[in-house]
Amino acid sequence: MNRDEAGVSYERWQKRRPAIPNVIEETEVNKDQVKGAAKQVVGKAQEKTGKLMKNRKQQIKGAAKQAAGKVQKSYGDVKEEVERQDTDQQPD
Asked: What 3-state class would DSSP assign to 78?
């Protein structure tokens, strides 16, 4: 039987600890929303860097990446809403 510094066995600790729901497994992540938001952040950083370096081409690329991210996130939002409505309308 393995004991930690407090002298409690791991098996006993497992039995006493409160049940913690696994929220990560229960929640489905909409990848389009996440990727879109990430593109927006990267695009904003790229645009700011372009301004700082006085590089117009980088500013434009950053703005374009932000726009693409916004579109992708919006697509993810709509997709999630459709899926939510679909599950709400299914009979139990």
From this structure: helix
Query: How many structural domains is the chain composed of?
Result: 1
Query: Would you mind telling me the total number of residues written for the chain in this entry?
Result: 92
The answer to whether residue 36 sits within a structural domain is: yes
pTM of the entire structure? 0.64
Over its length of 92 residues, how does the chain's per-residue pLDDT go in tens digits? 455 555 667 677 666 666 665 555 445 678 999 999 999 999 999 999 999 999 999 999 999 999 999 999 999 999 999 988 888 777 65
Query: Cα 41 to the chain's mean position, in Å?
Result: 13
On whether residue 49 sits in a domain, the answer given is yes
